[in-house]
Amino acid sequence: MSLVLPQRPEPDPQLRSTLVRALRDFLPPDAVLEAEEERRPYECDGLSAYRQLPMVVVLPRTVGEVRQVMRLCHSLGVPVVARGAGTGLSGGALPLADGVLLSLARFKSILDIDPVNRTARVQPGVRNLAISEAVAPHGLYYAPDPSSQIACTIGGNVAENSGGVHCLKYGLTVHNVLKIRLVTVEGEIIEVGADAPDAPGYDLLALLIGSEGMLGVVVEVTVRLLPLPERAQVVLAAFDDVEKAGTAVGEIIAAGIIPAGLEMMDGPAIQAAEDFVHAGYPTAARAILLCEVDGTNQEVSEHILQVRAVLERCGATEVRTAGDEAERLRFWQGRKSAFPAVGRISPDYYCMDGTIPRRHLPEVLRRTAELSAEYALPVANVFHAGDGNMHPLILFDANKPGELERAEALGGAILELCVEVGGTITGEHGVGIEKIGQMCVQFQPEELEQFRAVKRAFDPRELLNPGKGVPTPRRCSEYRALPDRHGHDHVHGHGEDPRP
Amino acid sequence: MSLVLPQRPEPDPQLRSTLVRALRDFLPPDAVLEAEEERRPYECDGLSAYRQLPMVVVLPRTVGEVRQVMRLCHSLGVPVVARGAGTGLSGGALPLADGVLLSLARFKSILDIDPVNRTARVQPGVRNLAISEAVAPHGLYYAPDPSSQIACTIGGNVAENSGGVHCLKYGLTVHNVLKIRLVTVEGEIIEVGADAPDAPGYDLLALLIGSEGMLGVVVEVTVRLLPLPERAQVVLAAFDDVEKAGTAVGEIIAAGIIPAGLEMMDGPAIQAAEDFVHAGYPTAARAILLCEVDGTNQEVSEHILQVRAVLERCGATEVRTAGDEAERLRFWQGRKSAFPAVGRISPDYYCMDGTIPRRHLPEVLRRTAELSAEYALPVANVFHAGDGNMHPLILFDANKPGELERAEALGGAILELCVEVGGTITGEHGVGIEKIGQMCVQFQPEELEQFRAVKRAFDPRELLNPGKGVPTPRRCSEYRALPDRHGHDHVHGHGEDPRP
């Protein structure tokens, strides 16, 4: 199996009881979970193929308690994995048998809404959608919208630099967060970012966003809010050929339109979504595109006409504009439910998250189909086409011997294909534990060593989420030696480097 | 004097001759400057009050040569200061008497223009404006436009995270750079960033942008290009009161318009600019606003009407829309020439770069005027009003005893005023050597220590631009003890932190 859990020491019963006794000194009884059945809900995140019971779960309520937990774990040398809602898809919140699982679930307050400066200061356990709901009375919203936005928390979004269908126009989490308050591994507080356009000193804000809990524990987030657009409208286009749909994506962007969302689904994904939520999708199509534009009434009307013209020119067999807001939401409902929809038709699925330069879309779809045949596992494709962020869903049955391993190998091969055409192994789901092997393909040894040096600058003893995100040199040697690795070591962007 | 040069060891003649001999082994004669008259042009950057001859100047032509320079300096323990065009305003490129000044002036090639993906890959010594000129035939441009754009280089822009009048709408350098190739202090190459929307691993790209040459030497930059807007139009509004102009800024933003530029000048700045470039400014006004909108013809026409209405409602005494492109450029010419214009009317000037939350604009202007009276030095105000980035220009005469020191003390007091109202000590000019004392006011000791840890992760021996950007703990103690410090130690954003 290419994907192995990090090797950890056996939990030391003596250390465990010392830790728990000390935790109970300052935390109320319901904030320290020891019993196996209480720890069970925390054994995995959205990458449910990997499970590990944590040594103990803590659920602090205040920043002061988080600081005390960190100080204690630091003094005892106990590793800590922080967790939001556990909806992450790369195993970033997978616990450690010898570690503390630190849940931020009780940090659910919206601390401040400033409609004039268009910011909100929130605790990390606030759900993504709850921010938009809270600020809607001011005509504002928070733009990044991962599919899990009803459940996922802003702290988790920060950890994974989450995107969503609207990030083509409005950016990822990193583009929509202004400030973060962080508890360090030693229990200190640092605040990074600023309300101003730039902040003096090194840009630790961007460094922390997407760092998967490996540099500190986020205890407060100030987000940027946007005015709700006057109008949003979506066009659905059907194609009898996936490559034509891929071409249309490039043509829309080239026409100078930046859609609020530009999503593609292939035949298997369309069928699964339609069966599940009855979005009205044309199930005979080989691919559909959903193109949303937003802005003033005038802009939207103009852009919809332009988009329709491009889609027809690119050979769409059907182009449908949502007739009203209910239909617009239904169109999106299909796309946003694609993962659970696929979950209904397959015992298990494995969602990949590679990105590619848009121009390689047709080629990558063709080669993905070839790999799917080679590994004898179906693949349904759903993706943020506008920014080249693919989400191939590999369908398999973990109860059939060898299928999980084959799904992983196929997933790895697809990611290495993304790297080969100049893309990356993750667009928005993070590396976590899932893609740690492929990090050895994406980056040169010097680059990985620089990541490790940055990690040490925050966490010299490797206590924060160890084993995730950045592979050790040994791990890379092992990964490169794997017999079932499909890809090779072409590394993006370095091909033309005549290193002297 | 509050601003002291970093204390450095005397250059060691033995080490110097060893270094020069080794440099001449792999660099051609014209790439190693030893003679005093050859080193003289490198003794300062745009913060010309501080001058220091470097031990030796090197002008490599290839990445391989840069790597060899770095390896050599690393092995000998010689510090290195990298330099672009030397237009920086905070002394970030001030040389060291015991160090190498590494000029990137010969890295002037545009390596690749990709009009489909709208990117350009350029060497660090390419001038900011040269990029826009080179891509203009494709209908594209590079958005960040510092006042010095005709001379400053993209490498320097990356080092300082430069902005410009258009950064309100289009962002700072960090928002417009996709990838960087960096030579590390040990002479290794690492590449950070990606063509994809997100890159796996820690976000070193944002960390490096604005790091003032303290983490590595940038040898290649891939920038994002934007389509030239169909039309740009500018409105000039005159006010008989600076506070009214400040209010109008907030009202324009609140109306939902994001201008491409929103700039303010006060009476002394208007007069100086008008005398210099005859931009047609109303010299009787106490303040003018320049508000540019860009986009489609339709959008621009609508927004200009809205902007004019807001300005009139806010009490503008005159509102003028540029009649043609020539007039539009003339309006901007006045603003962009404000620094040299002030340079004509005063023997010396000192340009500050604080940012403040927009709502404090009227208060900060009033208190700046009070400080100006207190220190008996005139101040001309020019600023990126839309994003609250102030550029007070303190007029003084360095030949008059005590005036430089008074100008510095006044500048420091203005910056601490910015911090007090929730702003920052620099918006786009960087910390360099100039604001290193104020860093002790802006940040808590834990935050500064985290900056130092990040620095060590790239440069453990402090060889890259030492003494700039991040103060040592000792420096902060000295700064806080200064008798002529005007401000106090209120630190932005931490007021409400009930640290347990």
TrEMBL record, chains A, B:
Cofactors: FAD
GO terms of molecular function: FAD binding; oxidoreductase activity
Biased composition (Basic and acidic residues): 475-500
UniProt-annotated stretches for the region Disordered: 464-500
Residue ranges annotated for the FAD-binding PCMH-type domain, each copy included: 50-228
Name of one Pfam family that matches: FAD_binding_4
Keywords: FAD, Flavoprotein, Oxidoreductase
InterPro entries from the UniProt entry: FAD-bd_oxidored_4_C (IPR004113), FAD-bd_PCMH (IPR016166), FAD-bd_PCMH-like_sf (IPR036318), FAD-bd_PCMH_sub2 (IPR016169), FAD-linked_Oxase-like_C (IPR016164), FAD-linked_OxidoTrans_Type4 (IPR051914), Oxid_FAD_bind_N (IPR006094), Vanillyl_alc_oxidase_C-sub2 (IPR016171)
PANTHER family from the UniProt entry: GLYCOLATE OXIDASE SUBUNIT GLCD
Protein name per the record: Glycolate oxidase
Source organism of this protein record: Thioalbus denitrificans
Origin organism lineage: Bacteria, Pseudomonadati, Pseudomonadota, Gammaproteobacteria, Chromatiales
